[in-house]
Design a protein that fits this description.
signal; TRAP_DctP; transport; seven-stranded mixed β-sheet; TRAP_DctP_sf; alpha/beta; 47% helix; globular; TRAP transporter substrate-binding protein; 332 residues; three-stranded parallel β-sheet; D-Maltodextrin-Binding Protein, domain 2; 17% strand
């Protein structure tokens, strides 16, 4: 009886399918989750969204990049762990990468990167040959090199014009021992803290100050809880478009190619956007009530000598990388 009914229904189902009355469900589209800690309007936010737009146009229906900002998928440390587990697909870590491999401490060295043209040369001659492979040894693959930016100090205590002005200040820093040691050598009391916790820590006085690029300061509204902006420019931090190596290997080759090519080509957009924001945001922060001051950079450079000695002495190949990066800056 079942066979008779099925045979009778077969032609009817065929007619309904052909006529579009109903259809079988399509295969689910692969969603690629891209997490970052940036607030809406930040450089991270604009960069990730531009990448997703470009990649999704090229991927058609093969996959779709979906961006989750504002630490929705966790802190930088948590997202790095999720990359290894394969529960998210992309993250955009910055300073925290020095906890993955000590060689990333190169970008914790004060006043090493002069400008973005210098950074491009460092990327070609130092980063891709030396740092990217070190990440792969730890289970990560970096597919693009973007930007967090030149970092500046904000405080509620006093303007910072020279290293001595930092003495005793409780300063939030991102994860990574080299930033901690740098500010300790300046006399501050640095404490690593998740970016998502920073606003409240400043608002309540748990921290006196912090250091970040202007785009992170403004987009996270830190001007509402900080009085002074000191243009130290002490460190330039890249941002790394990072995937978990095992999950990455499981994607189709054509999808990987589109994603990697798009991550690389988005770099120009990132640099152009970052340069424009640097020009605009200092004036905006001043207009919104912050007191802005320049600093004695020569004094900061001199006070940074111990951190270079420590890095070169503790990390294999560090001295060679630093010397190469400095040499590449001579033509800037």
């Amino acid at each position: 009886m079942k066979r008779i009914v099925l045979n009778a229904l077969g032609p009817l189902v065929g007619v309904l399918l052909a006529g579009g009355v109903f259809s079988l469900p399509a295969a689910a589209q692969t969603e690629l989750k891209f997490g970052h800690v940036g607030a809406p309007g930040s450089l991270f936010d604009q960069s990730a969204n531009e990448f997703a737009k470009r990649a999704n146009e090229k991927l058609g229906g093969k996959a779709k990049v979906v961006v989750f900002g504002s630490s929705q998928l966790g802190t930088d440390e948590q997202m790095l762990q999720k990359l290894r587990l394969g529960t998210i697909d992309f993250a955009l870590p910055s300073t925290v990468m020095s906890t993955v491999s000590d060689v990333f401490g190169l970008f914790e060295m004060p006043y090493l990167v002069k400008d973005r043209e210098h950074m491009k040369r460092i990327a070609d001659d130092v980063f891709w040959p030396s740092l990217a492979p070190a990440a792969e040894q730890q289970g990560y693959k970096i597919v693009g090199l973007w930007e967090n930016g030149f970092r500046h100090v904000t405080t509620n205590t006093r303007p910072i014009a020279k290293p001595d002005d930092l003495k005793g200040i409780k300063l939030r820093v991102p994860g990574g021992k080299w930033r901690v040691r740098m500010f300790q050598s300046y006399g501050a009391n640095p404490s690593p803290m998740a970016f998502s916790e920073l606003f409240v820590a400043l608002q309540t006085g748990v921290m006196d100050g912090q250091e970040n690029p202007l785009t992170q300061i403004h987009s996270s509204k830190l001007q509402e809880v900080q009085k002074f902006l000191s243009m130290t420019g002490h460190v330039y931090t890249p941002a790394y478009v990072t995937v978990g190596a095992r999950k990455w290997a499981s994607l189709p080759a054509d999808v990987r190619q589109v994603l990697e090519e798009t991550a690389r080509e988005t770099q120009d957009f990132v640099y152009e956007t970052a340069a424009r924001m640097d020009e605009e945001l200092q004036a905006k922060l001043r207009d919104e009530g912050m007191q802005v001051n320049e600093v004695d950079k020569d004094a900061f450079v001199k006070a940074s000598e111990p951190i270079y000695r420590d890095f070169s002495g503790e990390v294999p190949a560090a001295k060679t990388m630093v010397e190469k990066a400095v040499e590449l800056g001579k033509s800037s």
